[in-house]
Amino acid sequence: MKMSNLFFQSLREVPNEADSISHQLLLRAGYIRQVAAGIFATLPLGLRVTQQLETIIRSEMDVLGAQELRLPVVQPAELWQASGRWDSVGPNLARFQDRAGRDFCLGMTHEEVVTALVAGIVQSYRQLPLLVYQLQTKFRDEPRPRSGLIRTREFTMKDAYSFHTDEASFETTYQTLYDAYVRIFERCGLNVIAVESDTGMMGGKAAHEFMFLTPIGEDTLLLCGSCGYKANQQVATFEKPRAASKALETLEKVATPGVTTIEALATFLNVSKAKTAKAVFYMASPKAGEESFVFAVVRGDMELNESKLSAQLKATTLRPATAEEIHAIGAEPGYGSPIDIKRENVLVIVDDAVAASPNLVAGANCVGYHLLNTNYERDYKTDVIADIAAASDGDACPNCGAAMRAERGVEVGNIFKLGTFYGEALNARFRDAAGELKPLTMGSYGIGVGRLLACIVEQYHDEAGICWPQQVAPYDLSLVALLDKRSPEVFEVAHKLYQQLSEAGFKVLFDDREESPGVKFNDADLMGLPVRVTVGKRGLGRGMVEIKKRDEQERQEVKLEDLLEAL
Amino acid sequence: MKMSNLFFQSLREVPNEADSISHQLLLRAGYIRQVAAGIFATLPLGLRVTQQLETIIRSEMDVLGAQELRLPVVQPAELWQASGRWDSVGPNLARFQDRAGRDFCLGMTHEEVVTALVAGIVQSYRQLPLLVYQLQTKFRDEPRPRSGLIRTREFTMKDAYSFHTDEASFETTYQTLYDAYVRIFERCGLNVIAVESDTGMMGGKAAHEFMFLTPIGEDTLLLCGSCGYKANQQVATFEKPRAASKALETLEKVATPGVTTIEALATFLNVSKAKTAKAVFYMASPKAGEESFVFAVVRGDMELNESKLSAQLKATTLRPATAEEIHAIGAEPGYGSPIDIKRENVLVIVDDAVAASPNLVAGANCVGYHLLNTNYERDYKTDVIADIAAASDGDACPNCGAAMRAERGVEVGNIFKLGTFYGEALNARFRDAAGELKPLTMGSYGIGVGRLLACIVEQYHDEAGICWPQQVAPYDLSLVALLDKRSPEVFEVAHKLYQQLSEAGFKVLFDDREESPGVKFNDADLMGLPVRVTVGKRGLGRGMVEIKKRDEQERQEVKLEDLLEAL
Questions:
Q1: Fold exhibited by the domain A475-566
Q2: Do the Cβ atoms of B36 and A70 come within 8 Å?
Q3: A433 close contact with B: CB closer than 8 A
């Protein structure tokens, strides 16, 4: 490709809206342009990288015997109503009515559609297991699109779905996909770790996320350097510091004027935060239109984990309760405890560390007062005791007890164990060997292609621009001709090289523009092809051209006739 | 691919909803499944054909130096408002509001988005001409999806866009695209003709459509076998039979009780239909919210062409006027003429043949009466005289006068001359060599991939199923093993052949299922791979296997060891 023809324009300025390195570089180097918030056009350079990634993904899917298909972007509401997600997913699901007034949505994922499709084709256990995938446009109406291609609203996703007779068959495929994902990210050159993760809105049983570690990540991961435990904070467990077992002491109300935080309370009473209990108030909905009050209690030295809480409650939405709602159950913001509150339509859930810690300080449900020596069971009952506390940096690994570290990551892939959730919901059943009808067991497996591309840029760049790994670069090399009107031979030699290199199988981007050497070198660095070959008047005088690898400082002169071999 | 693994199921029954051969066969042979009206899932077999077509299309685009990119499906309303199409397109454009209440639509075509993108990158005539394309999902909320993939609501389209400094540059590219389209359809094996066509909602200046001739087509085409003139009826012109020039005779009102059609009138008065004038009444909108009455007159021997009328009026919508609206202007349904009607907010448009024909019989705007000897100019004035009559089968070619024939066709591709419409509307300008700012001149070029696939099936099938042309078939051959529990060697030999043929580069679909020979042969015929190789116990006994071409009756036995060569 000649750069004089390339549909591209580099930007010298860092665009205002670009809030991550990959966003800045992909815009500046002419790979993408924004069309609306979270909606991008992929320019020819960007599409070439995208297609390289798609080729890698396809080849690893095909090796598994996965069959590619194409499911629609526009999906009828009935399917999402059948799974319950029409109500549970909320505004992330973009909806519209067609000209006849029927409800449709834009697919943010395709479990419903593919399950309904499979239900119409698979009747017998003999047709299982089945693994299908697609590369298709998705739309998620994210509240806060950010970081360019890292969190968009419209994106291309590789989504695969597997169907099975039972869990054993599923587990084999799940592991196969896990391994394929590891290979895909390896082939793309991206440093990724797999962590245990939340099933979120997927309605499943367990999941893994493939995380690229980066400070701009929106997820927090807990990593154990000792035994290798890795989990998203949403589901990470930890060995909680145990409270010494002690005789229960007498409940006592004390004045704590103006003391509304755990920090202030610990200082005021001169106790450790681990000796306090913290009440947190929510309104939770198991489904749209139904809300109930949730009174959650964690120890003062821990934070509540909303994902764990949601999972325990099977809640589809969770919002902080208002002061009015808190007063209505007889509690007091800043001074809450589960003792003597109204229990009608109130669910009390207590972290297991609270239940196991004697004599905690808690609120007295009354402004300016706390209670000493509150004890679960003696002083109050609870509906649920569960792990609802967030693991954080330094907490002990649940497996080996070593201190874990917390890091930030971007999810570039995920794999979900969905069990029979969709099989049941969409009545997708098969006959087993005994002739009995059973619901399909299912897994789903996603990779965001644009996000993968952006993460590669986050990993491979320097101050001057992108440094693509060879296998995903849009072209193999930049051929820069330092044109000089007094030396037409520079163009002639460069053009001949362009033809020779192209014929030899190199994908060459030939900078034939009438621009200064500075502009050409800057653009080549910004764009990030693995190798730059420079043809200039001075070198040609000696029969030489220059080779420079993008990720090395060193330049190398080679004889014109040795160039092919040197490359 | 082993058929025991293929995600596929053939149907013996013709599905009720399938209203064309391609729809029936693609459903029955397991290429597609319907998800909702006009919305399909493409199964692995269908996707393989789709990808073959996409490869052919890409290669012909790339040869032209066209650069592939990817534009978003979801598009902001502002761009469509800028072009005016947000209002003019109507309910075919699917719209929704995002979570913040901003208006978006699903791209049914991408002129606006690509023009805005190009405007941000192209500043100088040096960057022109530019040709870009994409293969992307489109959504059009068609009122009547039909014929399977022939008229869907969601579909994959190859859309290309070219940008130019001027008409001369544009014309060159337009011809290049025209030729590329001819090659694409040739390579797909589809018999297609190019016809002049309407610009419809595209806002352009001229257009060609590539038409596959078939009785199920929704378009009518006028074709001249003599000089080669070819046009969609929407724009086809014809040499109108001239009326003999005659002295104007006296206007005379005659009673014609109960005579409300041209046929009845001609019979009642014993004149030819060519001696009568027919009034047709419409309400037309140049844009949403504004309507005016249109009084159109054509000769009684011709039909009015609504596309030509719309084009003359620059109307975005056109609907028949109600009896009430007709009475309001002083006319009478069944007895209308433009003589003595109210002219306020009424546009009178008269076909040129009417204006040139003396002494026509027309209505008297009064129930039961007609006027003899009405004459344009003497008896009434008009706002517009233009060609608004429909060419039909047998009409004379506008170029050579030979009788044209009318045929039905399906549009599989189109190319549009858009002029500076979008350049002006979206303020997409470049600086010419003199430094002056000028709007971009533009063309757009589309091919519906799914519709192309369906038309190939319409052309290539027989009673037993599809007969794919080699170059687009999902696999090269069906390898049918006639399994027999008493002869395990059938499977062994077939499996070995499967491996050998695959290694030799053939794309083989290996029917290894435990099904009867009848089922296997039926499925192979239905599915339509170009060659079937059968391995059975009887033949193997003599060291032979059978080869049969899908489109021939003859079967050929070859020695096992000669099979590769024979293929």
A1: Rossmann fold (3.40.50)
A2: no
A3: no
pTM of the model: 0.92
Architecture of domain B468-566: 3-Layer(aba) Sandwich (3.40)
Instruction: Return the closest-CA partner of residue B111 out of B416, B449, B444, B428.
Output: B444
Four-way CATH pick for B252-390: 3.90.550.10, 3.40.640.10, 3.40.50.720, 3.90.960.10:
3.90.960.10
A21-236+406-458 topology per CATH: BirA Bifunctional Protein; domain 2 (3.30.930)
Distance from CA of B477 to the nearest CA of A (A): 18
Q: Which residues share a beta bridge with B372?
A: B252
CA separation for the pair B257, B282 (Å, rounded): 25
Percent of chain B beyond pLDDT 70? 98
Q: Where are the domains of chain B?
A: 34-72+108-236+406-458, 252-390, 468-566
* Chain B contacts in chain A segment 47-66 (CB below 8 A): 47, 50, 65
* CATH dotted code for B34-72+108-236+406-458: 3.30.930.10
Q: CA angle, corner A447, sides to A441 and A448, nearest 5? A: 135
Q: How remote is the C-alpha of B239 from its chain's centroid?
A: 26
Q: CA B53, CA B44: separation in Å to the nearest integer? A: 14
Confidence band of B193 (pLDDT split at 50, 70, 90): very high
Q: Where residue B203 falls among pLDDT bands split at 50, 70, 90?
A: low
Query: Largest Cα–Cα distance in chain B?
Result: 98
DSSP string, A45-80: HHHHHHHHHHHHHHHHHHHTT-EE-B--SEEEHHHH
Cβ B145 vs Cβ B153: under 8 Å: yes
Interface residue B98 vs chain A (CB under 8 A): yes
Closest C-alpha among B104, B97, B98 to residue A143 = B98
